[in-house]
Write a structure and sequence with these properties.
The protein has 16 helices and 9 strands. By secondary structure, it is an alpha/beta fold. The N terminus and C terminus are likely disordered. Keywords: Membrane, Transmembrane, Transmembrane helix. Belongs to the NDRG family.
């Protein structure tokens, strides 16, 4: 990949595919964690959406040279892949207990313990954003910042629950193929890239479709069930995090595509977070999976967001930062939305405007 002006040379493909895969045993079963970068640097934890893994959810972002230079220069990346979503995964046996969203959040804590990590930055997409937000609510001292893409934060509505219930039945009987894959592609991408009778679907959609074909339907069912659970039992249902959001004090940057099915959830979440620490970026002509569809639109907001932690792209700061992130040592003006370069109301941006 060619370098852009103002960015140091970085072999994105070598770094991105040069990570090490770690099977991590947690109290709720094993998960796969792929580690990229210098482990002496601050940690960035990622968590994908339903039916995706880190390759299909974050590849576009890390293949964007400017974003890669920003993130890989400042962080060691720990990609958590939900159980059964890793490449080549076998079907999870039916006698393995199904997990709740709280179990998934607790697994994140177990991953941090496994690697000896203290406080971390988090990046999640939709269902993964919910898991990491719940993790932040349960383990507030372990989360220094949240970067969320098309996040969920409320309990499933009746319409969402019913739609996902139908999808679960299709997954169970048909696996990941045909109509099921189309439903997932609609969840992730805007109409513009999915194509139509006149326009072919884009390469990113074709690549995602190919990866979905390789996913085990029963494994996807387990993750989707956890996210879709509206049980009356507080121990297993997907909670409404509205009240918990009010208690969060970590800085939060939210991206959402204007055509995302979860646009209303993202806006709702922004209104409930402390306005001093939160900003919303709305990306025009984009679906939920901003990290793949328009990764360039994330660059400038992320750059300003990370400046609040004393982090820069390597062209601006040649030495590699190795100190732990500590927002409590940051001057108050750096915590303001203005310091992030974004406004509290949604800003509409296209990737072409900021590349």
């Amino acid at each position: 990949m060619g370098d852009s002006s103002g960015s140091v040379s970085i072999d994105v493909e070598r770094i991105y595919f040069g990570g090490k895969e770690h099977p991590v045993r947690t109290r709720y079963g094993p998960v796969s964690v792929s580690v990229y970068g210098d482990e002496d640097k601050p940690a960035l934890i990622t968590y994908p959406d339903v039916a995706l893994n880190y390759m299909s959810c974050f590849q576009g972002l890390f293949f964007c040279p400017e974003a890669a230079s920003l993130l890989l220069h400042n962080f060691c990346i720990y990609h958590i892949t939900p159980q059964g979503h890793e490449l080549g995964a076998a079907p999870i046996p039916s006698d393995v207990p199904e997990l709740s969203v709280d179990n998934l959040a607790d697994q994140v804590a177990d991953v941090l313990d496994f690697f000896g990590l203290g406080s971390v930055m988090c990046m999640g997409v939709t269902a993964g954003a919910y898991v990491l937000t719940l993790f932040a609510a349960k383990y507030r001292e372990r989360v220094l910042g949240l970067m969320l893409v098309s996040p969920l934060c409320k309990a499933p509505s009746w319409s969402e629950w019913l739609y996902n219930k139908v999808l679960l039945n299709l997954l169970y009987y048909c696996g990941t193929s045909g109509l099921v894959n189309e439903c997932f592609l609609q969840r992730y991408f805007s109409t513009e890239v999915r194509g139509s009778g006149q326009e072919p679907e884009s390469e990113i959609v074709q690549a995602c479709r190919s990866l979905l074909d390789q996913r085990q339907g029963v494994n996807v069912c387990r993750f989707l069930k956890a996210i879709n659970d509206s049980s009356t039992s507080p121990s297993i249902r997907r909670h409404d995090l509205t009240e918990a959001l009010k208690k969060l004090r970590c800085r939060t940057l939210i991206f959402v595509g204007e055509n995302s099915q979860f646009h209303a959830d993202a806006v709702h979440m922004t209104t409930k977070l402390d306005r001093r620490y939160c900003a919303l970026v709305e990306v025009q002509a984009c679906g939920s999976l901003v990290t793949e569809e328009q990764p360039h639109a994330m660059l400038i907001p992320m750059e300003y967001f990370l400046m609040g932690y004393g982090m820069y792209r390597p062209s601006q700061l040649e030495s590699s930062p190795r100190s732990t992130l500590n927002p409590f040592c940051i001057s108050p003006e750096l915590l303001s939305p203005e310091s992030m370069g974004v406004k509290l109301k949604p800003i509409k941006t296209r990737a072409s405007l900021i590349v």
